[in-house]
Write a structure and sequence with these properties.
The chain is mainly beta. It has no helices and 10 strands. The strands form 2 sheets. A 6-stranded mixed beta sheet has the order 2-10-9-4-5-6, with no helix packed on it. Strands 1-3-8-7 form a 4-stranded antiparallel beta sheet, with no helix packed on it.
């Protein structure tokens, strides 16, 4: 069964940076696209970024374009999300997930606050 463990969250000031990492297991990682979602307080969970098996980026949400970068390492079974120039509205719980499945990790909290 697929399993995802997110790490790297925390509290950062506006304009700061964080790098999230997701360790995947339980399936052949290199055969599947991967994605990052986020859920802000009181809001629906939304897609942030997605990446294909080859490393080609498939999608960025408009709100993060130019600030976030998704990447993957098929040798380590990890997918990362580099977040730069963070804004208060980026505060959310971030999740990684296979786009074709319905298994979620526990998520990781990112708080942007002055």
């Amino acid at each position: 069964q697929a399993r995802f463990v997110e790490s790297g969250g925390g509290v950062v000031q506006p304009g700061g940076s964080l790098r999230l990492s997701c360790a995947a297991s339980g399936f052949t990682f290199s055969n599947y696209a991967m994605s990052w979602y986020r859920q802000a307080p009181g809001k629906e969970r939304r897609l942030v970024a997605a990446i294909l098996t080859t490393g080609q980026v498939a999608h960025y949400a408009e709100s993060v374009k130019g600030r976030f970068t998704i990447s993957r390492d098929n040798t380590k079974n990890t997918v990362d999300l580099q977040m730069n120039n963070l804004k208060i509205e980026d505060t959310a719980v971030y999740y990684c997930k296979r786009p074709d499945g319905n298994i979620w990790g526990q998520g990781i909290q990112v708080t942007v606050s002055s």
